[in-house]
Amino acid sequence: MDVWQILISIVGSAVLTFLAVRLLDRLRRRDAEAEAQSIIQKAEEEAETRRREAELQVKEMILQEKAEAEKELRRLRKELHERERMLDKRQDALEQQAEQLRKQEKIVESTQRKLTERIQEANRRKEELTKLLDLQRQTLHEISGLSKEEATKRLLDMLESQMQQEVGALIVRHEKRLAEVCEQKSREILLTAMQRYAAAHTAESTTSTVDIPNDEMKGRIIGREGRNIRTFEKLTGVDVIIDDTPGVVIVSAFDTIRREIARIALTKLIADGRIHPSRIEEIVAATRQEMEQHIQQLGQEACQEVNIHDLHERIVNLLGRLQFRTSYSQNVLQHSIEVAFLAGMMADEIGLDGALARRCGLLHDIGKAVDHEMEGGHPKIGADLLRRYGEPPEVVHAAAGHHEDLRIENPYTVLVSAADACSASRPGARRETLERYIKRMEELESIAHSIPGVDHAYAIQAGREIRVLVNARETTDETAAKICRDIAKTFEQKLTYPGEIKVTVIRETRHMEVAK
Fold first, then answer.
1. Rounded distance, CA 252 to CA 238, Å?
2. Of 266, 285, 348, 352, which has the fewest CB atoms closer than 10 Å, so is most exposed?
3. Is residue 196 one of the residues assigned to a domain?
4. Which DSSP letter does residue 366 get?
5. Which range of residues forms the domain containing residue 466?
């Protein structure tokens, strides 16, 4: 009984639970359906709202695109209108050009027609002129009685005379114009360079004097039977002159290096007091070595003075030797330094390389250091040495052509030549003998007298100027100018001189009457 009750209660509970579950499930389904219906309704409403919004956006976009399309259409219409207007203008311009071309064609046709008529008229007149000339020529031959060749000769002679006068006039005019510019500019450059550089120079002689403490020293210098003085002269290559002059011994030699070595060696011997052949050999050898060092130092000092470096040691040594070389009593090393400064200053004035110009000027006379050892003139010797030791072509050419022996190929040679002439021709730079001076004056005057039409010629200012008097009856002002130029050209071709020679031609006409 109890079991069945339990079973019935379990079954009843299960049935009730099932029914409750079904009821809850139905309620949940109903709620879900209601919720779903609500969601569907909301979705439909939202979809309808979005559809309406989309329709509104589409309408707005359509309206906006329509407005833009209308705007673009208006712009295109405006552009088309502008193009039509431009095309109308171009068409009008083309029509005007075409009209002008038609007018020009008519003008050209008219001009060609007139030109053809004029050419025909000119040809006709030319034929008439030729006939008239032939008739006149025949008439002239009949009147003058001259043949064609004789008349031609007379005409050519007359033309030659006229041309000489015209050439003289042209020479005067062009020389005057060129002289105003060239002389002023060159004078400014030369004066500027010479004023910026000034150096004191002394002229060396061929003898040197050595002071001695007493006359007894003269006997010691001579030595027993003259062995000391013979040894000294043999080793140094100089002449030692011992005369009655008190307190002085004279060393004589044309080679200034030998003379300087001998002077220093003799001074050392006198100071040492031990004078005998072996001691003389030691002193002379030591002095010669010191002299070589001194020569090298002189060359280096010269390079430093003109601010030129990287020279070969041999070139520096040769520069030092120029200190003991003179030309017309002018120290060659000082002359070279002076030329270097003048050339460098002139190069700076005209815009060239001043350092290269100084190098050319310093080395232009380097051949004089060895011209007694090698054959040829010092320009050729110097150029060969400089080429051998790797100097630039401008320096080599300046050394070879500074006396105008070669054709001038670069401006530095001209600068060195001008500086060389300035240094050599300045007052006190050189001395020459009276015979050579007179000979040079006579040579200048004789060359001037060789020119036709010259009556008198006078060389003045130590040969720097020559004044010429021409015959006023045989010459004119124009031919006088030609004579002046011919004399100057003849000087340039036949003479070698430093600096320049001024030629002045004077033509004078005098009229004289006697009152009775």
1. 6
2. 285
3. yes
4. G
5. 434-507
CA dihedral 430, 434, 438, 440 (to 10 degrees): -30
Does 379 fall in a domain? yes
For the beta sheet containing 502-507, the strands, ordered from the edge strand earlier in sequence to the opposite edge, are 454-460, 465-470, 502-507
For residue 336 the two structure tokens come to: 């070279």
Number of domains in the chain: 4
Task: List the pLDDT tens digit at each of the 516 positions of the chain.
Answer: 567 777 777 877 777 887 877 788 788 888 888 888 888 888 888 888 888 888 888 888 888 888 898 999 998 999 999 988 999 888 888 888 888 888 888 888 888 888 888 899 888 888 888 888 888 777 766 666 666 677 677 777 777 776 766 776 777 777 777 777 776 777 667 666 655 554 544 334 456 777 778 777 878 888 888 888 888 888 888 888 887 777 788 888 777 788 888 888 888 888 888 888 888 888 888 888 888 888 888 888 888 888 888 888 888 888 888 887 777 667 788 888 888 888 888 888 888 888 888 888 888 888 887 766 777 778 888 888 888 888 888 888 888 887 766 677 788 888 888 888 777 765 555 544 456 667 778 888 888 888 888 888 888 766 778 888 888 787 887 788 888 888 888 888 887 765 578 888 888 776 667 676
Tokens of 240: 């030692």
Residue 233 maps to a domain? yes
Q: Any bridge partners for residue 505, and if so which?
A: 468
**Distance of alpha carbon 371 from alpha carbon 385, whole angstroms:** 11
Q: Are 380 and 439 in contact (CB under 8 A)?
A: no
User: What distance in Å separates the CA atoms of residue 374 and residue 397, rounded to the nearest whole number?
Assistant: 19
